Each structure stands twice: as C-alpha cells, then as structure tokens.
What does this fold into?
Amino acid sequence: MTFEQQWIEYDYNPFILFSSSGKILSLNSEAQFLLGATTVTEIFELATTYANVTFGFKTTFIDLEFGRYKFFGLTIGYENEEEIGIKLYQAPSFKLNNPKPNGVLTNIYTIIDLCISTNSINSKIKFIKDFDPTIPSIIINSNSIIKILNKIYLYFSDNEIITTKVFYRIGEHIKFENNKYSIFSITVSAENANATKADELQLLAKKSDFYIDIQKRNVTINIPMITA
It folds into this structure.
C-alpha cells in the first residue's frame, strides 16, 4: 500500500469508489463501518445525485445521518463514465465537556494487547488487530482504559471474531486549557453484541472521562493525543 493509499485507508471520513453500475470497486475502513448502518444502493444514489453535471469534483454541504453516523457534507468526483467516487465528511460524535485526562505516559498498543491476552484465556474468539503503528505513547489513566476495554470485549464475547482498530481521526482536535490536541480512536467491532453486558458497559461509559460511542456492532473510544 502506497503512502497515498494509506492516507485514504486511515481517513476518518468514509470513501467509496463505485463502478457506473453501482458496484463497489474500493473503499476505506471507515466506509466499511458506514455500510453497516446503510446500504450500498443508498450511498451510490447520493453519489449520482450530487455529482457535477460534467467531469470533475463537486463538494456539497448537507446534513446526513445513518445510524450513529452524522455528516455535514460530501465530495463527489468522476473523470470518466466508468467510475465515480464519494467522500463523506463526519461531524464530531463525541462530547467536548470532559476534563483533561490525568495519568502517565503509556503505550496504548501494550494496553490493548494486555486486554486481548486477558480475554483470550479459555476463549475460542479470534482477535484481529488493525493498528495504525504511528500513534505515540500518550498520557492516560491505564486502569480506567483497561476496565473499559475489558468491558467492551465482554460486550462482544458472543462472537467468533472481534476486530480492534486503532486510527487517527484526521482533521479533528480537542482543546484543554487553551491547548489543541489531535485525536485517535480505538474501535472494537463484531457481528453480535452481548445484550446482558450492555447496561454494565453503558454505566461504565457514563462514569468514565473517555469519549465513548456504543453501538450494536462497534464501540469507539475517542482519545486525545496528549504526550506531555
């Protein structure tokens, strides 16, 4: 994968390239999650509806919502009659009133690996890791994030496969004490949620200082990248 392709793959905003008949030719990771909340046909109809009348690119600001996903705009582009691409721009989905995190400088990959190892004991679940390796060590409360991650893995314990993705939220920032920090996310996803664990996870999320978005097929923790 080239550097340019990696930018698209790890972009926080969904991108899909369609054929003229509406078949998906390529898409990034975020688009895969989006298609769990809508259909290929619906997104293709958006692409054809908001495309420029001639070859080229057109950006339209429009409020769209698909399940937990909220968008404030989209860009459509095509250079021939065979392919058409769409990129949707996500609105921030997390609260902005939480206090600045306290803790020590921590390697987030080590924390995730520890939690996966713990939840792998006596389990047949296959844990898949999709990590952006460039996330630096951050200041975080290790005990709190471990509790949240373990609860999330229990939430998805009725599955054969659980995927954990770590990625930058490109273009998003948060301010604490007049300092602006980039954001990255940990998304844990699987086909089925364990309904008996849902209330426990919701309660822990409310008590936590993390920005957590809980859905049936994925749970996302949004974390400020505080390194000093």
About this structure: The CA atoms of residues 64 and 71 lie 5 Å apart.
